[in-house]
Amino acid sequence: MFTQEDLKQLEKKGIPEELAREQILKFEKGFPYIRLAAPATVSSGILSIEGQELEELITYFEANSGKLGILKFVPSSGAATRMFKDLFNWRDQLRQGKKPAEIAKEDKQADQFFKKMWSFAFWDDLAALLKEKGKDADDLFFKKDFLTLIDTLLEDQGLGYAMLPKGLLKFHRYEGYNRTPVEEHLVEGAHYSCDSENTVKIHFTVSPEHRGRFVNHVGDVLKAYEEEFGLRFEIKFSVQKPSTDTIAVDLNNQPFRDSDNSLLFRPGGHGALIQNLNEIKEDVVFIKNIDNVVPDSFKDYTYQYKKALGGMLIIYQEKIHNALRAMDKGTFGAKDYARMRKFAIEKLFMDKALLPEDSSKGIENMRSLFNRPMRICGMVKNVGEPGGGPFWVENPADNSHSLQIVESSQVDHNDSHQKEIFEQATHFNPVDLVCGLKDHNGEAFDLLRYIDHNTGFISQKSKDGKDLKAQELPGLWNGAMANWITIFVEVPLITFNPVKTIMDLLRKEHI
Questions:
Q1: What are the two backbone dihedrals, phi and then psi, of residue 165, each rounded to the nearest 5 degrees?
Q2: Does residue 170 belong to any structural domain of this protein?
Q3: Does the first or last residue of the chain, that is N or C, have fewer Cβ atoms within 10 Å of its Cβ?
Q4: For residue range 271-297, what is the model confidence (pLDDT) as tens digits?
């Protein structure tokens, strides 16, 4: 199957031949669908915190987080190309001679964009660049020369927004300056990711081709934020490892070959970032996507619930770690077991079938169930957003149930019962996680041990006009964390404000 040249290519990428063969076998056999038992709801699987409990969790976090190593982990490699899909369409129509008024009459979003283009945070940069070219942005706007304006915004000879990552685009306006998502994450980090030494640690995962741009941007703005908050920022960047790329195959499940006969590999998806996360050595890690940011006027809810989720993580881990230490010492008795069994079932939503009432039969099971990384996952009410959500899932090995974040692609929609359960979801995954990565002895877990490798998926793509099949690794918050202790907590919808299209920046949450 593999030539000597292929083996050299695999070795260069750090992919063992055996792993490449396993991936091809998965193309042949496919991935099993996940078996949903029920949607997780506030009455079953999702905790709701508010009022006094919310305040107590926030207070606990503020009092105890300084004792721990804290880091904010931000997946940031996504390109902004899809953000501008509508702009490409409107530009094509303009190039064909269609008037802005005609486009606006047929498309309400185009009408809004043409009327409000001056209000976007990128307008100042656009105007400055056009001035260098001897043009006046306001004059072009008044004359409705949107073709020139859009070209200058998107193309490489202009601001190049079409090919930049989202993290480097100007999202929000402020008095006298504008911020990128990277800057908004710096501000967020100053409010809930600061340690006892007044250091804010943030880790951005970026694409290799844009790493230099991220480094330069942070270098340009960091001093101002350190002075504003009186803190030190420690910013690091990493890229998806080449060894996490997956081999592509043709429709006959044979290795797909490029025009030079070399093997074709494709990125393994965000699940590959479990490798990057596995190298983090801090105790508590907040995870949030790069585009889910708001201006300062909307940040209070974000700060409150980030701290509350962090407080819950610290409290729950202390309970678990104390129990494990007692088990290690042999001082964990029947009463301790009964107390922690109740906690595990009611607060950690562990299947009581795995924890028999008799402590002599259950302690070792409890030890195994407790000695895992933990994640507290914020969940927002379902408002029709595409993507995954919280569910009770059947584990085929022992017929137990566990809480999982499940994507639509993992579900067999041809099974009417499974489809019905998926459609009954009350909540949606906004990627709002706080994770505990160390055990009761202070040692970092090997996160690669807790991946469910059966939760990847296969999609059909094309290259140079030829059809191929691609394989994505288990998603970072799906299969890559499938065997973690998982707790779902309802958080307000206002904490979820992603920017998927440029028009999202005109929503009140981004102005």
A1: -75, 155
A2: no
A3: N
A4: 999 999 999 999 999 999 999 999 999
